[in-house]
Amino acid sequence: MGEINFSGIATGIDTESIITKLMDLERSRIPGLQRDKSNFEKQRVTVNDIISKLKNISTTALGLDTKTEISAFTATSADETKYKATASGSAAPGQYNITVSALAAAEHERSQAFTSNSISATNSLTITSGGVTQTVAYNSGETLDTFAARINSSHSQVSATVISDGSGNYYLEVAALQTGTGTGYGEISITDNRTPDLFTFSTTQSASDASFVMDSLTITRKANQISDAITGVTLDLKATSASAVKLTVDRDITGESDKAKKLVDDYNAAILVVGGQLKYSGAKKGGDTLFADATLRNLQRQLQTAVTSSYTQNGNTSSLKEFGISTNSDGTLKFDTTTFSAAAKSDHQKFIDLFTGSSGFAAKLDSIVTDFTKAGATYSDQGFLVTKQKNLDDQIKDAEKAIELVELRADKLGDSLRKMFSRLETTVSTLRSQGDQLLAALGRL
What are the domain boundaries of the chain? Predict the structure, then answer.
């Protein structure tokens, strides 16, 4: 049971009210500390957001800092029913005449007909395909479907299924998952380990290689998707052709524009947050913002310098403005697609040199981001914003500790005052009792 306190019975003083008010006075610092903590937490959220957006810039920039990465090409087949084509940034413009002679195929093996879906013996099949050999057991009384499922779960290079012809006959079909000739590719070898064989297989489709003629050169591959015949181009063979089908590889200015614009968009997302924190519109900024923060001012200055600077590589000096990328009044970048396309077509190497290489725009942005966001065990190894992040964490913890300390002091003050007033009540009560006794004795004289 807790302590029962009859406040002011002897003295007539409302001591609990006095104690409560003195404790409230001691706690008067808490709202300010809570406000500080809230401000630090909101600043922490803002710093986290900026770091995240800066890392987006870095990710995009690192995907554009080489010629292969920033370049874009289209590969167009004159007849996509015969083959389709795609191109990467490592391709080069050109035209090719391609005649598809043969498609790659995977071997299919089919068992003899079974008059029921039930297996009548117990043993195993040894199956080799795609460079993998696996022995798979079959059991008397189980269904062909159960055995097919076991093959599929045991052998990574074949697919087994059960076929019913609708007349009461069942067949186990085993197909290679790879195409091309050779047991390391699309051929299958199946051995029944039972004597006599329960399963007898026959070939319903033979494995074969893909073959095509490109500008009088015959090329053979194990698969229909071919990425090593023309640098940077992937061919997907669909059907044989009686005559040559033209392949055209051309520069994709729209694709390159999209890549550059993605970097601009990531930059704008970050600079808007930074600028929003630092901008003064005449109204007083709250303590929960990073207004006038030195770290943010430094970041803003470095980013703005990066987008307005000229870059020189391989004898080419250029700037973003030449390619239709200019600065708006709020610090964001404006991307003019028409100007960009015209400039990239006019001098493609200058475009490459502007964005790529160790001295290019993409590398410069990544360097800035690294300086502000890199992780590290010590302050000297950390990015500027990471240090600020940790400082805010410390300030949040300090505010929490200060609130706890004030609450503790208030509780201790309340306990101390209650004990003091309790002693006062006891003393007054004793004195009154003694006075009453003295008056009673005097009355008896």
Answer: 8-72+252-425, 73-103+210-251, 108-205
